Amino acid sequence: MPSLKTLMFMRIASLLTAGAFTVACVGLAGKSLKDLHDNRVFLPMGIQGGIDAKDVLGAMGAMLGAAGLGVICPLGVLYPTLPKTKRAGLSKPPGPPRGAGVQSPRAHVTRCSEIGHFISEFIWWKEERGGFLPFRFRFINEIMLGISCIFLLAASIAAAIICGTKSAKIWLNPPMPQAVVDGMLKATGKSVRYRDQKAFPAMIMGWLAFFFLVISLILTIMAGLHYRRVAAERRSSNGSANHHEKFSEAREDAAHA
Transmembrane: is it a keyword of this entry (predicted)? Predict the structure, then answer.
């Protein structure tokens, strides 16, 4: 099994990656709904109408809610460690020198890696000195992350079916036959299929967020097993030390007697 510091760093990186894909999914889903709402150029002048996309709105909302829950819960567990970094005796990663120019993307990636290592080092320091979070809180964290993964899987499957096979519904006032509406769409080169909108890449981003959340869940469970094993060894060593101390005291009392 990897070391505790490695598990911490991998879990933080996985959660941040899942959060990035969740933010991208939010942006693409919002852009898709805006495009579907504003894309009425195919409607003739003087005819009122609109686009109904409630199905994809519900699927995207469920996907974003589940992904957001899966990212916020573990990060909420890590948040209390951030204001207490001075207690660990660790120095913060050095900041960029004043007056420095624009840094390259590689420098930003390196800085993010240093921050991740710093947080994981602090959590490891706390865990080695008696534990930072109670086991009950760890169980709640694992359960919430697992529930969010299940919900996100169900929402992602529904979003994949809707985005891959369905399209938005067009309504006109006064009503017109569907063949007329399809002809207007074909003549203007417009499409209301979800596969041709930003909803499709948003669905892909949701699946990527699910993938990294599952990785985070696996790493969380592995870290939990590591914590429990260390705690059991600590209790065993403390019990042996107490037993040895009591035995030594009994021998000394017997010798004095």
Answer: yes
Residue 180 is predicted with a pLDDT of: 76
State pLDDT tens for residues 33-60. 777 666 655 555 455 666 777 787 788 8
Q: Are 43 and 115 in contact (CB under 8 A)?
A: no
Integer Cα distance of 66 and 16 in angstroms? 15
pTM exceeds cut of 0.85: no
CA 151 to each of CA 87, 102, 159, 211: distance values in angstroms, whole numbers, following the listed order = 38, 41, 12, 13
Written as six digits, the tokens of 172 are: 């006109």
Q: Please choose, from the candidates 168, 158, 215, the residue with its C-alpha nearest in 3D space to the C-alpha of residue 190.
A: 168
Which helix (H) or strand (E) segment is 170 a member of? strand 169-173
* Assigned token pair, 46: 């003087």
Please report, to the nearest 10 degrees, the dihedral formed by the alpha carbons of residues 36, 42, 45, 47 taken in order. Answer: -60
Measured in degrees and rounded to the nearest 5, phi and psi for residue 177 equal -60, 150
**60, 29 Cβ separation under 8 angstroms:** yes
